[in-house]
Design brief:
By secondary structure, the protein is mostly beta strands. The chain folds into 8 domains: 116 residues, Alpha-Beta Plaits; 310 residues, Peptidase S8/S53 domain (Rossmann fold, 3-Layer(aba) Sandwich); 75 residues, Sandwich (Immunoglobulin-like); 79 residues, Immunoglobulin-like, CATH 2.60.40; 210 residues, no CATH class; 65 residues, Immunoglobulin-like; 189 residues, Jelly Rolls (Sandwich); 78 residues, Immunoglobulins (Immunoglobulin-like, Sandwich), CATH 2.60.40.10. 11% of the residues lie in helices and 35% in strands. Strands 36, 37, 42, 43, 44, 45, 46 and 50 form an 8-stranded antiparallel sheet that branches. A 7-stranded parallel sheet has the order 9-12-8-13-15-16-17, with helices on both faces. Strands 38-39-40-41-47-48-49 form a 7-stranded antiparallel sheet, with no helix packed on it. The chain is globular and about 140 Å long.
């Protein structure tokens, strides 16, 4: 179904200047009048009849494509004309009533023809019979749509750095495509003005301060202190408005780091603080005053630089308000009048889920008014995005509803949105439609930059028609028209052409090449096929093409024509490489063993120094910033290191207090952690029965609960002895108290008193996990473990696992005479909102508080251990070495693990690895895909020494289990169709990747495939699959896809697998399927392939594309594949071609046996010769021909070996081949008798 534009044109109408009817009173006012005395005062809104129909004027201006300046001047002139017609007489009457004490005050407005008055009930009653009054209602005070903060979900919800540079963006902005618009189109909101009607904005926030319009324009037209709080410049006493404005336009730049949280990060902004400030006047209305101000901030209709392009609203009223009417219309006119004057107005739908939308967002005045936004969860990045559980749903019950009663209009990300908050910080814990609305408002700002005179009708129409449809096909009461798509919406209102093409290295496509146009501020990256496209306005451009490891190339004189593509293909050459190496010295003057060395802002994996502190990179020649860290020292950066063919850069690490133990607190407790020069070693002892531990589970299963447990010894804490502890669900042990406080504080804390605090936060045992304890007598310790305990609220999915060890004061006293304490963490999820430390009610030591660390603290992480009380410095040694391949070349990416221990490492580009362990004997495993595994047993570690352990690994042979190009009739392959369906598979000569034939599902001639295909091409059975098997195939396809829904297809192909003769199941190749089957095939018949929602390949791919199937999971099993193609009864096309099916894996690791062994005597030597394929050989000897051949007489990589003549007479010899992990069968034995 094709979407259509809902733009309609309505002629301009003028109403009669007189009002013939009696005044209408709202139901809210009628109710109020029944509860008050005649002389009681009521704050009310009195609406007078208007001569000019602003709705008709709005549509007329749209029809003639008026500019924003023309709109603003004409609409404001009409509004002021309406007010001038009949307000003067009424205002004169109010002056008289004020002098008589009947009216206490009033405020007239022109944004709608109305007056807010504070008058006696009896005077309001007298307005019923007036001919110059149209409508009277109670005054209102709006309420913020409060966000649903989920503080334990994690504060920093940003996406990783953009690969184009050092910019960090948010999942929400990436999901809607705003980041893509900023990047590829260079459209960032430049020259656009945004506004929000909210709680204010922190005007000093680094993400916003530079772009407040009041920096250079009169403050009166850039900030409205509607709440009368005396704030001369923007401030925010709530935080909501700052978060909303950040999502619209936030960006902070610090050095090379850019933190972008807004859709339109270069837009300027203005704001008011009307909402939720607890202030106001009975004879005024701040929201009406706001909208009058928004329509013309500087009071001059001949200027529009002050006029906001978009206004975001996150407020409304609900059933909790006195006199509430769900379909109250009292605000609609002045909102629509303001929008007619130029700004686009957006609304958050509300957080009431199925209870419906708030007023005024609930109204559907037209297809474009009032425009409300629902919320989706886009945290995982990939569509489809589920609707947020709280997002208000339609339909609207209000009438009239035009053109329909469906609500909301559009959806956007609104769950765990990361944005600015007052004080200069950020939060990713805000959820609500209040967070979704500003995403849409920010996109409107981008559209206004692309089309400055596009009005609200054009902009909203483009947003709706380009949205990503979700849920029920077409518009629905959950998502509206779908999820907003910024890139498509901006293009819909833009006049652009494109530059595009393919970048290769001369032979193969290059992905990840940056195409950058400085003059337009636009850039993009090539995809996996090397393709790139950049949309641009008409003009001539220069494009710079760059990729790490290649020589940058700039091509100029590229002319862009609207609605056309300028093709520019590019070939990049490899840059010359060089070696950067050096020695890292730690802050104690010794070689920094195991230090991390990295090259900043380039895609090169960090390396680790070896036992001599040595590091090395082989990298493209150029200039780099080199950073080293670790070894219990600070971080050192050397900028601008020029790498030539061979460059040396030594680095010395500075000292860092974070790697020192803390100074003793007033009670004598000093904190040390692993990583400190004298710190402890992480040593997890599992306690929880749920994890297989020997401990006892507590009875703590409720929220904010605790349990008292007796200790098996005396524990001394800040000079006081304790024989029992109170274990609290919220991550701490209380001594002498029974606190269950969840609101954490810094230590010492009078709230919880004497305590050991491992993770004080609002934890939530009802979601699962276990709290347990155990007396480890061998360690003289009592251990309490919180195992997989999540945070409040339920469903936060952020479990923590940590322990507190309390030691016997008699056996393990610290320097202060108190018991020693150990706190350690197996896994952590959210480490920014808790307290960690130790204390009494008056004295204490804080390791961390809500993410702020003590100067000597490194911070919580997995495998962190913190001790109090002077533990002995552990003995440590190092195993390091080099792993090489069969050619003695360094082998990178080898996983080195210690059997039975968590320590592990991966070899770097030079084959180096390093492991730090306590003294002892260890068994090490070495593994890499495609290579035979190696094990070294009994490797000894000595305190403060380095044990060298070099290893050689040999490549496994590659085994091919299928190589089918269909040139010989494809033996063993079959094809059929499900009963009642059509099979179109056949060997075809129309297209082929290699040779002249391929398999095709389609017409045998040049026609199209049939209707109602369910055609299945089935392979032979491939038995006993080799290790790490994979299969590749090449394909082309031309099939019917949806012309409306970009992700959808009606016909397409996919692959299925059967294992060991079992059922056929779908298997996903790489690249993955790119389309989704939308409808059932054939006029409602059941479809034997995937039901709607199944994935497939479809569309037009007429170049041979390679696909890969991972079959490693089926080692030693039998598999069959089938290629399946389905079609409906509609449009048919060429079909699906498949060719060059190749399956490989790794075969038997045992080398071939040597042959043709000969022995010759040469003086006092024996010379042995043989034939073989290696890679290494052992010459073995025995006293008899039957062996055993246990004595190694020599080892060589050659096929000849010379040894001295043995002195013991007759000996028998064999040669075996080895690859270091397997040994071949022996050669035939040969003997020599020297007696």
């Amino acid at each position: 179904m094709k979407r259509w534009s809902r733009i309609v044109f309505i002629g301009l109408c003028l109403l009669a200047a007189s009002w013939a009817g009696a005044a209408e009173f709202s139901s809210a006012l009628e109710e109020k009048l029944t509860t008050v005395k005649p002389d009681d005062f009521i704050s009310s809104i009195v609406i007078l009849p208007s001569a000019v129909d602003i709705r008709a004027l709005d549509n007329a201006l749209h029809a003639r494509k008026a500019t924003v300046a023309e709109r603003n001047a004409e609409v404001i002139s009409a509004l002021k004309y309406n007010a001038a017609q009949n307000q003067p007489a009424f205002l004169s009457e109010l002056d008289v009533m004020t002098r008589d004490g009947v009216v206490k005050g009033y405020t007239p407005y022109w944004i709608d023809n109305l007056v807010v008055i504070y008058a006696q009930a009896q005077y309001l009653e007298s307005l019923r019979i007036r001919g110059d009054i149209e409508f009277v209602t109670t005054n209102f005070s709006p309420e913020l749509i409060e966000p649903l903060r989920i503080p334990e979900k994690g504060a920093d919800m940003r996406a990783p750095h953009n690969p184009l540079d050092t910019e960090t963006t948010t999942p929400g902005q990436n999901a809607i495509g705003a980041t893509r618009v900023n990047r590829e189109l260079g459209i960032t909101g430049q020259g656009v003005l945004v506004a929000n009607c909210d709680t204010g904005v922190d005007g000093t926030h680094p993400a916003l301060s530079a772009r407040w319009r009041g920096n250079f324009a009169p403050v009166s037209e850039c900030w409205r202190d509607a709440a009368g709080l005396g704030h001369a410049t923007p401030q925010d006493g709530n935080g909501h408005g700052t978060h909303v404005m950040g999502t619209m336009a936030g960006r902070a730049i610090s050095g090379v780091d850019t933190n972008t949280v807004g859709s339109a990060p270069n837009a300027r902004w203005i704001a008011t603080n009307t909402i939720n400030q607890g202030t106001g006047s009975n004879f005024d209305n701040d929201v009406i005053a706001d909208y009058q101000w928004f329509a013309n901030p500087d009071g001059n209709i001949n200027t529009t630089a002050d006029l906001p392009d978009v206004i975001q609203n996150s407020w409304g009223v609900h059933s909790g308000f006195a006199g509430y009417s769900q379909c109250d219309t009292r605000w609609n006119s002045f909102i629509l009048n303001c929008e007619a004057a130029g700004p686009v107005v957006t609304w958050s739908a509300g957080n009431e889920a199925s209870s419906g939308l708030r007023t005024p967002a609930i109204h559907s005045m037209s297809a474009y008014q009032i425009f409300s936004v629902g919320a989706v969860d886009a945290q995982d990045g990939a569509a489809p995005y589920p609707i947020a559980s709280f997002s208000s749903l339609g339909p609207t019950p209000c009438t009239p509803a035009s053109p329909d009663n469906i609500k909301p209009e559009i959806s956007a990300p609104g769950v765990n949105i990361y944005s600015s908050v007052p004080g200069g910080g950020y939060s990713g814990t805000y959820s609500g439609t209040s967070m979704a609305g500003p995403h849409v408002a920010g996109v409107v700002a981008l559209m206004r930059e692309a089309c400055p005179d596009c009005d609200h009708i054009t902009i909203k129409d483009a947003i709706m028609t380009t949205a990503l449809d979700q849920g029920t096909v077409g518009q629905d009461n959950t998502y509206g028209h779908g999820v907003i798509q910024a890139y498509e919406a901006v293009l819909a209102v833009s006049n652009l052409g494109r530059i595009g093409g393919v970048v290769t290295d001369g032979a193969s496509p290059l992905s990840g090449v940056k195409a950058y146009i400085a003059s337009a501020g636009a850039q993009t990256l090539t995809d996996v096929s090397g393709q790139y496209y950049i949309a641009l306005s008409e003009g001539t451009y220069s494009v710079e093409y760059s990729k790490f490891g290649y020589v940058t190339q700039t091509i100029g004189g590229l002319t862009v024509v609207i609605d056309d593509t300028t093709v520019q293909n590019v070939t990049l050459s490899l840059a010359a490489t060089g070696i950067l190496s050096g020695v890292v010295t730690d802050c104690f003057g010794a070689p920094a063993v195991g230090a991390t060395v990295e090259l900043l802002n380039v895609p090169v994996a960090p390396t680790t120094t070896n036992g001599s502190g040595f590091y090395s990179f082989t990298i493209p020649q150029g200039t780099y910033d080199v950073q080293a860290s670790g070894a219990g020292c600070g971080e050192a950066t050397v900028a601008g290191v020029v790498v030539t063919a061979n460059t040396t850069q030594n680095i010395t690490l500075p000292s860092d207090p974070a790697y020192d133990c803390s100074a003793p607190d007033a009670g004598g407790y000093s904190a040390c952690e692993n990583g400190d020069a004298t710190g402890p070693v992480f040593n997890w002892f599992e306690v929880a029965p749920s994890a297989g531990g020997p401990g006892t589970a507590t009875t703590i299963t409720l929220d904010d609960a605790g349990q008292s447990v007796a200790l098996p010894f005396t524990y001394r804490h800040y000079g006081v002895d304790y024989n029992s502890v109170w274990i609290c669900s919220n991550g701490y042990v209380n001594l002498g108290g029974t606190s269950t406080a969840y609101d954490n504080e810094a230590l010492p804390s009078a709230t919880i008193g004497a305590a050991v605090v491992a993770f004080w936060d609002d934890l939530y045992p009802p979601d699962g996990g276990q709290i347990a304890y155990y007396h480890n007598a061998a360690e003289n310790a009592f251990i309490i473990e919180w195992y997989q305990i999540s945070h409040f609220p339920s469903g936060s999915n952020s479990p923590e696992t940590f322990q507190i060890w309390l030691y016997n004061a008699a056996t393990n006293p610290g320097p202060n005479g108190d018991s020693q304490v150990r706190i350690q963490y197996q896994t952590t999820s959210n480490i920014t909102s808790n307290s960690v430390g130790i204390g009494s009610a008056a004295v204490g030591s804080t390791y961390a508080f809500n993410g702020t660390l003590d100067v000597t603290s490194q911070g919580l992480e997995n495998s962190r251990v913190i001790t109090y009380g002077g533990f002995t410095v552990p003995e440590l040694g190092t195993i390091s070495g080099t792993v090489t391949d069969g050619s003695n070349l360094p082998l990178a990416g080898v996983s080195v693990t210690v059997q039975g221990y968590p320590q592990n490492d991966i070899t770097d580009a030079n084959g180096l690895y390093s492991l730090t362990l306590t003294p002892g004997s260890y068994d090490l495993d070495y593994a890499k895909l495609g290579y035979g595994p190696q094990t070294r047993t009994g490797v000894v570690v000595v305190d403060q020494q380095i044990t060298d352990e070099d290893v050689q690994m040999f490549a496994l042979p590659v085994v091919t289990f299928v190589d089918e190009d269909f040139e010989t009739g494809a033996p063993g392959w079959t094809h059929d169709a499900a009963a009642g369906w059509v099979d179109n598979w056949h060997v075809s000569t129309e297209r082929a990747l290699s040779g002249t034939q391929s398999y095709k599902c389609g017409d045998v001639a040049t026609g199209n495939y049939a209707n109602l295909c369910d055609a299945r091409l089935t392979s032979p059975v491939w038995s006993n699959l080799p290790a790490s098997a994979s299969l590749s195939f090449a394909a082309q396809i031309e099939s019917e896809i949806s012309g409306v829904y970009a992700d959808s297809a009606y016909d397409g192909g996919w692959v299925e697998i059967s294992v060991n003769g079992g059922a056929w199941t779908n298997i996903v190749p790489t690249p993955a399927y790119d389309k989704t089957f939308r409808y059932r095939a054939g006029g409602g018949n059941p479809y034997s392939g995937p039901v709607p929602g199944g994935r497939c390949y479809a569309g037009t791919i007429t170049t041979w594309t390679n696909y890969t199937l991972d079959l490693a999971a089926y080692e030693a099993q039998s598999v069959q594949l089938r290629f399946r193609f389905g079609s409906d009864a509609g449009t048919n096309r060429e079909g699906w071609y498949v060719d060059d099916i190749i399956g490989t894996g790794y075969g038997d690791a045992v080398p071939d046996a040597p042959a043709n062994l000969t022995i010759a005597v040469s003086g006092t030597d024996l010379v042995f010769r043989w034939d073989g394929t290696g890679p290494l050989y052992h010459l073995m000897s025995a006293a008899t021909s039957d062996g055993p051949y246990e004595t190694i007489a020599g080892t060589t990589a050659a096929t000849t070996l010379t040894i001295p003549v043995p002195a013991d007479g007759t000996r028998y010899y064999v040669v075996v081949a080895t690859n270091g992990f397997a040994v071949s069968a022996p050669s035939m034995p040969r003997s020599l008798n020297l007696r």
